[in-house]
Amino acid sequence: MSRLLGVGLYTASEASAYTGIPAKDIRRWMFGYSAAGVDHPGLWTPEVAFLDDKLLGFHDLLEIRFVHAFRLHGVSLQAIRSASLQAREMFGQLYPFTCRRFQTDGRDIFATVLNETGDEALMDLLKRQYAFKQVITPSLYEGIDYSSEDSAKRWYPVKRSKAVVLDPARNFGKPVLSSIGIDTAAIYHAYLAEGQNAKRVSLLYEIPSAAVEAAVAFEHRIAA
Fold first, then answer.
1. Using 50, 70 and 90 to split pLDDT, how confident is the model at 2?
2. Is 35 exposed, middle or buried (0-12, 13-18, 19+ CB in 10 A)?
3. Among 112, 130, 187, 209, which one has the highest count of C-beta atoms within 10 angstroms of its own C-beta?
């Protein structure tokens, strides 16, 4: 149990709900796949690989957002895997795409990968001056709080809001109201049970109505 503290635990379906990335893609990237009789491993070892279940940790959850951005621009999994390995060595970080240094040094890393793989989509990205910045946009880093070692420590998934947070040190990384630590799903279930009356739920939990509304809005968003 102690190994799970401060790690975060997510199924592929939960990770999909929080990031908007299809669960089938997440499973493929994290846990590998078979094609034409050949087994392809995941892009990296999951943070909670010591568990038998196929689960993601908090850092896996953030890192796949970057993989998704690369894949949307046609970059191959082979190139992404190579870039992850090189950046890991360069930055001394297990989850290098989320590392802020990747914003400035990522293009150079992919240039090295291009020499190894000859990836055409990657070549196109690197040839056009601003294309790489369109992939690694500041929005991918928005909402992430970092430790002094430049490792992500919590994520606020709603743009321009800190009402809801995913923090591996709280509630196994599941979404909570950041000010009080109550699970957003618990608030939402109470909201439904109380006839969708936010005021009643706020009295029940002794929290502001705005906090109830933030939890409900978040749960509606991830269910969409």
1. low
2. exposed
3. 187
